[in-house]
């Protein structure tokens, strides 16, 4: 999204906007706006007062930056700002669609472009204008050379659009998170490359390899791209796509982030007048975004617009250079194609959007360069249109309508769904139309006020409604079906409230006269929220046709009201988080004794294709079509981009039955006479007339419509026109990947190692939103305090999410390396995270990603690194003490809103506690690095013996909190074998008090802890007892000197002295790490309990149908749902919940380049021979050798199969596996490092252990005889 400037050169205005993205090695993004304005071709030079004006402007700029930004807010949320001050008070205000007020040329634009190394380009642009008009760009070049563009290209103006959102001509742009996530989708027709080829008479070059040749022989030619307007648009195809744009860098705001010195230079060259900033003649600005999200404004450039296509002739190739942060970037741009877009209705502006190959400092990539020109004395060959008035609910209605009991279709209040419900509102809006093509049968609505009056006049109804609400929210026993059935019987036996009865009769006589016995009516329910964009509720409530006489009318109205509480309707509202007691209107409309009736969809109801209109129709009343009682005719109408209609396929149904009105009232089914069942029930003229009506209504409502119609004597009557709700349906893939984070390049390394121990599989939405964001924030904050990154970003950078799975971004994590800080070490960081160093991950990549620091800066950063971690143990102890009493749920919360506000208020505590835990955890990595440095004598060549010796040295750590879990569990198990119930209860209670906040996937908010569900622990105790493994030999304690003597790695005298000082601290650090993690998990448990309590309250209040759904909403979405009941959010949560098991099954490679690769895809190509013995190499983390049978387990649910003495082979372990350690004789994990959970606990229990034994669970099976060598790091399969 960007803002561009009008630039004048000579008597022409143009701007130049350059977007460069190159991804292969440097992974740098350049995105800037470089503009020049020149009068009469005399370019501005330095004048005599240049330097004085330069200094004065800089002082002025600094002063503006310090002003209070909130003092000059205007009524529309914007501020009286400019350079040096923010234009908007918040990103939320800037990202929402803006009111188009003031001058006629006011615009509100969103722009997205994308490209990749395979040669794909995509441009989307939507510019809102006044008068329900918009300008759209849509061009797409696929890697195989196919090209698509908007069928109106090169024109851009479209009409009859939604005037309150970014949606026009099938292109929709929706802000999901301000400045972070946007969803861009398109569903419509695009012109294809084949059409362009036929029109241009050109030959397509192979995969566009010759695109840089002369215009007459390439597809970048003006004719080849159809950059000239023609009525013959050739072949068009239906195209549907959607994607989510995620930010991977900070926002560059041209108000405050531009280089002040470049701006001062531009201002100092000007003649200073009162209109200086409105008529700035020479201005250059831009920025460089490094892949680590650091953004730097461009400080200088030699780009000269006076040499770049000044006469509407932008060059295909040009070079320039610029400087940012002291580095010089040399850029070479070569055009591939250049779509043109004409703006304004008079085509007064033209934009060249040039697909380009980019070379920056020798690194190749791709990008877009944009030139725009003002066209004077221009003419537009496209016929101009004007938008029709929008049919929408009025903001204000007369006060008498608000309190009315009945409203005629013609009254303003009948156009408001909150007064008459969805169906009545749509009929009120349709009645406003004056058309010769159709009529709206007369009628009126009983308002929601009538419904409420009736209920209040019968207290027994209020009691029954309360009972239904209590049963629905599990407050009292009973079934909804029985309660609704009883209530329906009570409701229909009530007499209509006197005032409602009187007003209804009066309106009937007013509209239809006193002889009502001769007129038949349709009585239809019209619930609040029905027939809207979010919820349909079609068929949930009753409709009565052919009603005659006042008595039957009043009876039908009562039954319509009662159907609001039918079990299907109640369940529907409950499943969408809506109140059980919901307002309801009733539509009373004169019946049309139709010859033919049916439904028209103005787009394909399944695919949303606007080029395919669909009609379902049958003889008689439309009830036979909507009820499915007979097979109707299905007719498709092919619709071109310019709304030309041609009848497509006619599928004649077996229309053996039709519904007709009975003379005595009501309806009946009759056989279709003659050969009518074999012929289409609609003539071609009526089909095309219906299609034209559908197009007209689309223009009026600005969206696709589902239209009910009835035809009598050739006259079309419209009975309903609701929005097509299936048009925006998302695929399973879309839902599963909606929270995927952004990578700046396909070369970034990401891994499940380390984070996979806490989160081995996909996370729930709430956990992803809370835990992942907080952990990423804490990581960024740690490195910022260490001086290795300049700022903390408000999006995932150190972590990465894909399919709701958590990964670590190794490129970003390596900001702590020997080139950025004195204590950094890339190899040791890899070892801590991956358990290995990777040969394919070179230091040069890290330097390109993060840059290089001077020696002095590294010293300063090293000092910051140490100081930021000093006192972390004391802070952890304070948090531990704080958590002894801190809780959120120990109150009788009166409402979900109140509890949510408290959770929201306490979120900073959640983040601060995790930050403290991560800070103290880093000490263990520091001391482990020191040990490895001593053993390797400062070299980065590490052998298996080095790993083995470090593991042995760390085998005697102090107070390892998680290692205490099995021992504490064994003590608690005494209650099953002791005669002392008092002691047994005390042991178990003490275990839950100390370790009850732990569990498998303990950071997952959806997963309940041991103290919440103690039966999880009981089953483990039973397994331990059955295996008789409660008593194990005590671990032999060895001193520091004894450990040093046992080392096999030769060390110097000074090396041993350093080890004697370092080793005790390294051992304590491991214990502190586990303690800090336990404290953070305890804080997580507080919030876990709070969210479960909130879920319970929301179910009791009818806002959610089941508690688990809360965990499939983000924290912000929960707030939105509490603020305004939104059925769409509940439906989305249900989709996520349904797909969550599928996400849990997905496994990925431990290390990936770019997007993660599923593990099964990787192993499918494995060529190994499983019939012979083989050896798997891992990283030794606990010494010892053991032979035994392997027990291969991939999930904790299989842990009950573990037998005493087996060697456990698993993908990972976390604290949830700890209770099983007394059973096993050795441990093998596919991921981990020296300080991973499995390694730490195995050393405490003296179990041989290796980690990072990749694919071990795939290569072995339970029962295999193996030898585990925890000293050499091998696992050997015996034949």
UniProtKB/TrEMBL annotation:
Pfam families assigned to the protein according to its UniProt record, in alphabetical order: PEP-utilizers (PF00391), PPDK_N (PF01326)
GO molecular function annotation: ATP binding; kinase activity
Gene3D superfamilies listed in its UniProt record: ATP-grasp fold, A domain, ATP-grasp fold, B domain, Phosphohistidine domain
Keywords for this protein: Membrane, Transmembrane, Transmembrane helix
Keyword Transferase: no
Listed SUPFAM superfamilies: Glutathione synthetase ATP-binding domain-like (SSF56059), Phosphohistidine domain (SSF52009)
Chain ranges of the Pyruvate phosphate dikinase AMP/ATP-binding domain: 418-738
Membrane-spanning intervals of the chain: 43-63
Entry's family note: Belongs to the PEP-utilizing enzyme family.
Protein name in UniProt: Phosphoenolpyruvate synthase
Organism: Paralvinella palmiformis
Lineage, broadest ranks: Eukaryota, Metazoa, Spiralia, Lophotrochozoa, Annelida
